[in-house]
Specification:
Elements: H1 12-21, E1 26-30, H2 38-48, E2 53-58, H3 63-69, E3 74-77, H4 82-98
Parallel strand pairs: 1-2, 2-3
Helix pairs in contact: 1-2
Length: 99
């Protein structure tokens, strides 16, 4: 819908496996997932791919708490609209390209 090619994974571990196969330019991860939560996935990704832009989508975690805990490019609070997602994606990519 926003012009990006999207791959998806059923769990955090499946997502990490997909990243091993072909790292994207942006990762959007949900906080609540089977097996690993989004914070655990982000920490694992940061160790292996520190340059990857990451957006954490959450309806559970306190946005400010997550932002203090982690090096994220964006935290997207659920529920969100498509224009919120578009803004988060553009901001995250802009931050990574500038840095």
């Amino acid at each position: 819908m926003l012009g990006h090619e999207v791959s998806q994974a059923a769990s955090g571990q499946d997502g990490l496996s997909l990243l091993e196969a072909a790292a994207p330019y942006l990762l959007i991860v949900d906080f609540a997932m089977p097996g690993m939560n989004g914070v655990e996935v982000v920490l694992a990704v940061r160790r292996r791919w520190p340059e990857l832009a990451i957006i954490l989508a959450t309806g559970y975690a306190n946005k400010e708490t997550v932002e203090k805990m982690m090096d994220l490019d964006q935290v997207l609070k659920k529920p969100f609209r498509i224009d919120d997602l578009d803004f988060a994606v553009r901001s995250a990519l802009k931050t990574k390209l500038a840095g």
